[in-house]
Description:
This protein is of the alpha+beta class. It is built from 10 helices and 10 strands. Bound molecules: zinc ion.
Amino acid sequence: xxxxxxxxxxxxxxxxxxxxxxxxxxxxxxxxxxxxxxxxxxxxxxxxxxxxxxxxxxxxxxxxxxxxxxxxxxxxxxxxxxxxxxxxxxxxxxxxxxxxxxxxxxxxxxxxxxxxxxxxxxxxxxxxxxxxxxxxxxxxxxxxxxxxxxxxxxxxxxxxxxxxxxxxxxxxxxxxxxxxxxxxxxxxxxxxxxxxxxxxxxxxxxxxxxxxxxxxxxxxxxxxxxxxxxxxxxxxxxxxxxxxxxxxxxxxxxxxxxxxxxxxxxxxxxxxxxxxxxx
Length: 279
Ligand SMILES: [Zn+2]
């Protein structure tokens, strides 16, 4: 399932074609949204932004198309007049003079005024966006000692979009490995320097995944592994998806466990955790 970095890259990709252009036509599959087509025609598209796993197409008139893909929604960006080959059902189409952004299969599509955004049920509960340039490790460190979060396990906290938005399951395992922490620990169990390292790891690993299309491993290590002929699957992560393989830092066997209902990978030696060695 795509996480914050993947959704942000998708918003960038759509934005490259839509930003600054006028919407020549906007089409909605859902009848209760169709009245918006006439109101959005001819309006300039200001930006395309992601908010955790949701996307906003923001129009200069102060209107936004909000969409959340859940597990099945999929965006295509094509030249105007082209249609992608897919059996999926088209739910939203935004056409400029030259391109079309087409959203298939998603069921969560809404039209919201700028004023509606802060009170929107999904957007209102999001914590600071880990990919935002305005969010610094200091802000994340402060959040770790906030009474709302400090007694929750790190394994649960890192999936909670209300704590920090944009993280997801692969990032959780990778961040905990980089910070050398077990998922059962809580922020209150950590020393100050461990909280600082965790805050740094949250920001650095999520941003690295955004810059490098989902790769969280260190760039120098990725180059070395690529040079050895390793596949993306092999070089992409430190521990995620590598159950039964060797930790590249200490040579122990990486273990898989379940935490908060999702699979989690960790190095028992670097992070002091138990688990099994399934992949
Ligand atoms: Zn290790």
